Give the backbone structure.
Amino acid sequence: MRKLNQQNYQPHQISLLTSASQVQRLQMPDAEVLFYPCFFNDTNCEQMFAALEAEIAWRQDSATLFGRHHLLPRLTAWYGDPGKTYRYSGIRMEPLLWTPTLLQIKAAIETIAQVEFNSVLLNLYRHGQDSMGWHSDDEPELGLNPVIGSVSFGGCRRFLLRYKGDKSIPKVELNLTNGSLLLMQGPTQHFWQHHVPKTKRPVDPRINLTFRIIQ
Ligand SMILES: O=C(O)CCC(=O)C(=O)O
Ligand SMILES: [Mn+2]
């Protein structure tokens, strides 16, 4: 299994090659979800993973649930334009200033998403026991019908979506591959929740970046 380390990190500008030619539009009611399984090529992915692992100020927050503090089962970080504060699960995050690596990834996905993101939430899943519970990205500061650009580097993890109301609508499952881009937009966050389950299977560390627009 790949170990977290900083050996592959080279702090130089990486020229990003992206591919939007392979795209899947997911067939889901009340949602607009596009998946680009190989948006970044293999060389880019290795360099990006190493750069992000080394540069990002990773921290382990705790969320408050029924008055008790629980360490989040992953490391996180919040970057963005000054003043773009983010609050979720009782956690308040002030943005750190964009790094060149983050700005490169942001520019690459903005060509596809056709919006300008002003912030990004980063998650580092160290191993299969790190995860993300069911939720929607529907905090008020994200506004109506938010565009979420989700980029993944490293170990491939399952990503599930479930409809909030009608339980007869089947769950949707995706493998978020190394170098993939998932775009969730339109009414998706109103009607659907998503999560990254734990796994017992040995899995490489994974970094996920969800680019957002804080109003
Ligand atoms: O790791 C992922 O793919 C999902 C991350 C996510 O849902 C979030 O940051 O809100
Ligand atoms: Mn989310």
In short: Residues 121, 123, 132, 137, 150, 159, 176, 194, 196, 208, 210 surround 2-oxoglutaric acid (ligand 1) (CB under 6 Å).
